[in-house]
Structures are given as structure tokens and as C-alpha cells.
Amino acid sequence: MAQAEATLPASGSASTGAPSTALTTADGTPLKVSIRRAMRRNKLLAFGLTLPLLLFITFSFLMPIFEMTFNSVDNRPVANTLHRSAAALQSWDGQGLPSEAVYAAMAEDLKQAAEERSIGRVATRLNYQESGMRSVMMGSARMIERHEPPWKEALIDINAAWGEGSTWRLIKRESGAITFSYYLNAVDMTYADDGSIVAQPEWRQIYVKLFWRTAWMSILITALCLVLGFPIAYLLANLPSRHANLLMILVLLPFWTSLLVRTSSWIVMLQNEGVLNDLMVWIGVISDDGRIQMVYNRIGTLVAMTQILLPFMILPLYSVMKGISPSYMRAARSLGANPLVAFWRVYVPQTLAGVGAGGILVFILAIGYYITPALVGGQSGQLISNYIAYHMQQSLNWGLAASIGTILLAGVMVLYLIYNRLVGIDKMKLG
Amino acid sequence: MTKSTNIVEFKHVQKSYDGEELVVKDLNLDVERGEFLTLLGPSGSGKTTVLMMLAGFEVPTHGELLLNGKPINSVPPHKRGIGMVFQNYALFPHMTVGENLRFPLDVRKISRAEADKKVQKALDMVRLGDFGNRRPAQLSGGQQQRVAVARALVFDPELVLMDEPLGALDKNLREEMQFEIKHIHETLGVSVVYVTHDQSEALTMSNRIAVFDQGIIQQLASPSDLYERPDNAFVAYFIGENNRLRGRVKEHSGESCTVELENQGGSIKALNVNTGGQGSPTTLSLRPERVSVNPENGEVPNVFEAEVQELIYLGDHIRTRVKVCGNDEFIIKIPNAHGHAVIKKGESVRIGWAMEDCRALDA
User: A235 by DSSP, 3-state: which?
Assistant: First the structure.
């Protein structure tokens, strides 16, 4: 009895019997507080155990992603270097030519940029928007020391481009701290001289086509993986375990082989003088000069990527199929369904979670795949990721690479959300 | 052609999975139209294999299977028209209850209106009339069980197979469902072949029970015959509780025989049911409830002094373990009736039983 009294708080409110507020432990501390206290140690321990991974992911994954995303809109090099001009251009209405004050500000900016050697980045950046701007900026920065005011005449003297309104409109547009030009470029758009958004000229349009090609190839690869993987997964799930284990090893074997080796071996298999062509010539299916081009094009990418991504389809399918009791098929057959109907109406619908999981996994992997298309894709088999790499490594247009990458990331996120809504992300598991 | 009285006939059916061991050895079994036949046996006795052969999921290695007088050895399961209830119900999880019931009607291309009617009738039969739109996962175990039964019956099969359908239910629900299935069987007049390892389930529901062991039907009889007149030691042991005493036949005359128990346990007068004749070893089977305490002199031929080892109070009766005839596992059930014999642990009591209740079986 004494104990029962002690569990009630001293205040009379206990008699109202509201359990959420009234419950306390024997010494009077609220129950929830003491539960928290009791759990704290475990929570700290769990957190401590995951801390190394958390730090690793933060520094090697999350921060680079944020930085990359930021790169796609970052315009600070231009904004900082041309900060006087940018401020002066604020009041310009964009008609005719700006006032002498603006020219003076630009001259100051150019002088400082030449001294600090920061003009190169600005020139390159503006050149992305308007070819020719590089030489305008570089030349002007080099020459400005030798000129005197008035700056309007001096700058136009250095380069006639300063006497054109479009040059100034471009600088006004592109001197903010952030820019959306990269995103516009990534979808084959650009700003027109009057600031409106228009499509790039036809010969410069590549990315939209590439996005579509990437999406289409990924769908094709996903479909191929499903068609090829479904029967294997079914066998795996239904064979006696002795045979199933052997088959499982065959499925997993590619995981234990270097990606590079696998991709290269496809070159050996598929190239003009390769195994497959030789075989077909030898059998007589094709003539010696009718060898089929199967690598360094879209077919090469398709074949090699399907083979590489197949396990990512098979494993989720297998794990779902493993859980489907054979008695469902038996029940369907005992109820009068022939084997085909039983399979289609009873078995297949129950595998949909696996089809969804495998499909989304393969599709997402395919959409960002790099090495394989780079090696076996030739020109027509290149995917969007190859262009991201190109802009990262060759053209050094990181902003464009970042914006293409961000668009890709957003697309994948949307897919995840759709999948989560339809199937539930918790259903995704490997094996 | 008139329909034969047997809906199913097994003729010399044998089944082996590995070619080395026969799971079913020479099965000859007729299932009468409209009867409730239970295949009862311990696990591995071949009873489920028999059911699977009947359903068409296993092919007999040898012998012939007749359904309505026609051989069905090579008829695939979906053309046999046999309803089946599975151990784990096998309700299709991606369909509602209504769609589950409609499935067998759909594949038979039955018109929509008629299918609706049949589905509702079947659901009403199992008292789940309002549950048509639920998913199986939203139902309790007992409700799922009833849906499975309804689904097996909705297309009006003449024969329904049930493979341990109540195994997953708790005791109370199981007893309730036993009654319900029995009731449905009686109402519809459908033939049922039921597989279970639970003897009380078999005794409650069946018209006839086939007791399986090691691939052989040990005895095929009505529940009361099976319990009261087991043919052999396995059946006596498997069905209900029984006291077993081992010995040799000393002499036999007609129905009765005298058995000399091993370990100088004494000699007992028993019913000669299944012994090998004079001198052969035998197992005596005696139901605990057929033993009387303090019998009147001359009332029964077998009377012995027993030492009370243990008393277990079970409410309706008192289970008493005694030592008698050199056997200290001898059980007596004393009904908790008004004025029943009061005995205490360690006491010595006189017990006795009739010759007819003590069956001399094979060793």
C-alpha cells in the first residue's frame, strides 16, 4: 500500500487520473523522465557506434554533394571580380550604352583583376554564355593599364565589343552572386539578348537528347534485366537448395569480378574481330565482310550494362519469390486454374514488390552509369554521365557538370518518391 | 451409367519419392460418396502424400486412382474439380476475400451475376457475409480459415480435401471450427477427405478414420470402433490413452486367452484379438477408464493389488498412476462423480477389469 501511494505525485491532481501527466516513479520523478534517463546510455552507445560512419558519410558524401549542387548556381568569381561594375550597372536601364560611371567601374575592376590574375575565370565564365567574351575580357584587362580616362572611349578603343549594348546586358545579367545559366544550358536553353529564355541554336542542342537517350536506354536495360532475371529468380527460389546454391554462386560471380574486366571482356566478345562475329562467320550466318558492329555503339552499352546490372534485378526478385509459398500455386490449380493462369493471376502479382524493387534499383544504377558506356559505348552509346565526366575533366565547366548532375539527382529522387508511394521503400531488400 | 457409391478409389497405389523407400505401400481405399473420411497418422506416415496424390500434385508411382469410377492418374489438378483447403489457408494476399472466392468461378467462366450469387452464398455459409471487401491479412486466423473453406466449396465440388486445416488455430477456435466444418459437411452432403495428426479432431468429425503408419493403413473404421476395438497395438497406442502390458499367450480358447505377463507380473484373461497363437508375444491394451477400483468379488476376472504412485486432479476426473503387475506406468481414470472412490498416494487398492476390455494385440 505504501508503494502504491508513493507512485502518486504529491499534488492532488492525481485523483483526476490523467495518466500522461500523473504517472511518476516511486521517488516522484515523472515516469517519462526516468525512462529517458534509463535509455540515454543505450542511445549514446548506439550513436557512438555509428559515429565513424556518420562522419565518413558527412565528409565524403554529403558535403561533396552539397558543394556540387552549389557549384551549379555559384557565380561568385564573376560577382566578386566585377563587383564595381555590377553595382554601377544596377541603375542602367539596358537601353543604348551605359554611362561613363559604369565604364570607369569596369576599368577599375579590370585593373584589379589583371593584378590579382582573377580575370581568367571571369573570362571563361562569360565565354560560356557568349563565345568571344573570353578574348574581350582578357584583352581588355591586359591593355587597360596603358589607357587614360575617359574610360568609355578607352574601352571601346581597346575592343569594339564595349560599344555594343549586348555586351553590357550580358555582364549585367551574369554578374549576380548566383546564376541559373548552367541549368538553362543543361536543358539546351539560354538567355537571349533581351533577357528572355530561348532554346539554344539547333547545333548546340545536345543535353535534352542525351537525357532522353539515357532514360530510354535505362528503361530498355531495366526491361531486359527483368525479362532475363525473372526466370532465373524463379528457378533460384524454387529449386532444391543444393542446385539453388550453385545457381546463386553463378549469379553472384560477376560481383566478384572487376567491373573493368567484365566490360573489357565484352569488347573481346563483341568487337568486329571478336569471338561472336568470328563464330557467326564460321557458322556462315554472316559473310566475312558483313561483320556486325556490336561494340562502340548503343548495342555494346545495352548488352554490357544489362549483364552487369542483372544481379541487382535477380536478388530482390529472388528475395520476394522466396517468401511466396508454393501452396498458393497449388491452391490456384486446385481451384481450377491451368498452370499459366495460376502463374499469371496468383504468382506474378505477388512478385510485384520484387519487380518494383529490382526495376527501380537497376534503373537508378543505369541512369548514372559511367565506366561501361565510356568503354564500350563509342559515340552513340554515350550516356549523360559521360558528359558530366567530360565537363569535369576536359572542358572544366564544373558549373554545367554540376547542374546536369543535380538534374539527374533530382530525377532519381523523384523516382524514389514514386516508388516509396507505390510499393514502400522498406520492401526493398537484397537477398 | 449410375454413379458408383464410391467417389474415390485407390487401387494398389504405391508412392516413392527417391526410388529407395515407399512412402505409401499398396494403398487400397474407397471413399464413399458423402462421407467424412479422415486420414490420421503421425508425421511421415504417408497421409499427406495420399492427399496430394488425390489432389493431383503428386503422381502415384504405381497403381490406379479412380474419381467417380474414372481413372485420374493423368488428369492435371485443375481438371479434377476437387476443392482443397490448405494448412496455411493459401488465401491469395493480393485479392480481397470476395475476389478469392470469385477466382474459381472466374476460371470456370461463370457469368458475373451467377458468380456474385455464389460468392455471397458461400460467404454467408461461413458467417462472413460482410467481409467480401476485406483483404485476407485483415482477418483473424479463424476468419481466414472460414474463407479458405468457403473458397474450396464455392464452385460446388463433389469432393473437398483438407490438409490439417486447423493446425494453426488455438485450442478453443479449433474446437469451434471442427464443429463448423462438420456442420457444413452435413448440410452440403459433400464428400470430405481430411488429413490430421490430431486424434481428437479425427474422432470428433469423421464418419470413418483411416489410421496411417509407415505407409500402411493400420485400421479403417468408425471413430467408436477405432477407439473401443483397435485391431493392433499401434492403433491402440495412437488413439486415446491406453495401458500396455507385455506378455506371452499361455493358452487361448475361442475369443478369450490367458496371457502370462513378463517380469512375473501375473496372468491376465484377455480378449484374443490379434495374437499369433499359443506362446507368441502379445501386447495387452486396456483403456484407463475401463479399470474399476474396488470391484465386487466375482464381478470381473482380472483383479490385482495396486500401489498408488501419483494422483493428478483434472476436474472431471482424477488421473491415478499405480504400480500393478510389475508396471508402474499404469493409469486409471477415476471419474469425479458423486461418491467416487477416495484413495491416497501410497495406499494399496484393489483394481480390476473385464476380459472384454483387455485386448490382446500384436507385440
Answer: helix
